[in-house]
Structure formats: structure tokens, C-alpha cells
Amino acid sequence: MRMRHKPNLTKRIAECEGLLFESPEGFKGDWRKALKYEKMALEIGCGKGAFTCDIAEANPDVLFIALEKVPDAMVTAMERVRDREIKNVFFIDRDAANINDMFDTDEVDIIYINFCDPWPKSRDAKFRLTAPSFLRSYADILPIGGEIRFKTDNLPLFEWSIGQFKAEGWALKDTTNDLHASGISDFMTDYEIKFMQQGVPINRLTAVRRDETFTRKAGTPERLRNASLSDARGNAK
Ligand SMILES: C[S@@+](CC[C@H](N)C(=O)[O-])C[C@H]1O[C@@H](n2cnc3c(N)ncnc32)[C@H](O)[C@@H]1O
């Protein structure tokens, strides 16, 4: 089925000249040199970009690449970056399943995954952005010590993801089930702002790549563990 886009999408993207990389595969291995930055962060599923703008504005020395597979959401993020005159953010309209086509070994210092879709059905577990195949793709582009910072409102997804990170050999730190318990303590995403207003606690962890972390390159067979989200809570489904 062909996806229908909002009217004016092409025009709105064109009006954000220079912010969208149409052929990001051509930059693989060359992002920092081409754009003249020493540190580089990748945000997966940036949505409308509240987090993207705030974190990039606060870290002008870091190159932020925001990847999003739905251009109708991404164009709002692009307009925000343009209107706020933020210079260190660029956008990619791609599926995260293809990141190894765009980023090389050790190329990215830090990956942000905020409020990704939980895909609650077992048969869809492979689409969760913390499924083993994704974690291995991330391990291939992060150096040893490189980090994934992950936030979600969804506790079953969070617990399931912890299991995947551990089984894939990542070290975990800064884990909390109530990130804002003592006030706002992070850059907030659009979804996060809504959840905060509803009083929903936010889960957050940082996963650190280690020597023994499984990579896609190493080719170890991967296994999707406990695909059901309820399993992660210990409830039978
Ligand atoms: C629930 S929204 C959260 C948006 C934003 N991070 C926030 O917290 O406000 C999840 C976003 O991730 C994007 N997304 C989901 N899976 C993706 C994938 N495989 N590749 C790229 N983007 C993806 C969706 O299109 C959507 O915009």
C-alpha cells in the first residue's frame, strides 16, 4: 500500500534547504570529516524533534543526525531546527533497519532512542528498536564505550529491552523507572512532555558497548528472547 503524505510535504521539506541528506549512504565513514565535527550523535525515530532541538542547541560542538522513517513527522522537526537556527542537526529519512548502510564501524559516539513503538504482539517483536538485530547494528557503528540512551513510558518494553541488552553483552547504567521523580532531569521529547502531563513515569537506561557485545559483523546467530512483552513482567500471556 502506498503511504499518503500530508499536502505540501515536498514543499515544506524543500523550504528547509540543506537539512535533509537525500543520499546518506554516500557519507558512510565520512560524516565527521565532511561536516567538520569531532563528536557525533544519532537519534533514531526523532518524530517532531523537541528533544533533537533542545539537546543539539545545548551541545553545539556535537553533530546530531536525526533519523526518521515517517517524513510527515520529520518535517516538523526540520522546521523547528530551521526556525531556531540550529546549525548542528541534519536529517535522514530512512528506516533504522538500514543504519549499517549509512554509518561505519566506530563512527557514532552515542545513539538516542526515545519512546519507540512497543510492537506489543510477539510476532512483531523483531520490529522493536531494542530487538537483538537492531542492537547488533548499533554495536557495529559504536566504539567500545559508546552509548545507547533509551527512554520509554512502556514498562513491559523497558523490562524486555533490559533482557535483550544483557543477553547481547551490553553493560547497563543510569537505570531508573522514574526519570523525573525529583523534577525534570533531561531533555524532553514531544511524547515525554505528553506523558509527564498525564503523570506517567518515564523509564531510562544507558547501555554501554563492551568488547564482548554481540555485533552483526561477528555473525553469531541471534535469537529473539521472550518475544511477548507480558513475559518480561512475569505474567503469562
Ligand atoms: C512514538 S514516536 C516517538 C517520537 C519521538 N522520539 C518522541 O519521543 O517524541 C516513534 C517514532 O519513531 C519512528 N520510528 C519507528 N520505527 C522506526 C524505524 N525502524 N526507523 C526509523 N524511525 C522509526 C516513528 O516513525 C515515530 O516517529
Give an account of the 3D structure.
By secondary structure, this protein is an alpha/beta fold. The protein has a single domain, classed as Vaccinia Virus protein VP39 (Rossmann fold, 3-Layer(aba) Sandwich), CATH 3.40.50. A seven-stranded mixed beta sheet has the order 3-2-1-4-5-7-6, with helices on both faces. Helix 3 links the parallel strand 1 and strand 2. Bound molecules: S-adenosylmethionine.
Short description:
With 237 residues, this protein is α/β, with parallel strands linked by helices. The chain has helices at 9-14, 31-35, 50-58, 71-83, 132-141, 155-167, 190-197, 229-233; strands at residues 39-44, 62-67, 89-92, 110-114, 147-152, 171-176, 203-208. The protein has eight helices and seven strands.
Strand content: 15-25%
What overall geometry do the principal axes of the alpha carbons give?
Answer: globular
What would the CATH topology be? Rossmann fold
Beta strands, count: 7
Largest sheet: 7 strands, mixed
Full CATH superfamily name: Vaccinia Virus protein VP39
Indicate the mean pLDDT.
Answer: 93
Distance between the termini: 32 Å
- Please identify, by name, the CATH architecture: 3-Layer(aba) Sandwich
Secondary structure layout:
Elements: H1 9-14, H2 31-35, E1 39-44, H3 50-58, E2 62-67, H4 71-83, E3 89-92, E4 110-114, H5 132-141, E5 147-152, H6 155-167, E6 171-176, H7 190-197, E7 203-208, H8 229-233
Parallel strand pairs: 1-2, 1-4, 2-3, 4-5
Antiparallel strand pairs: 5-7, 6-7
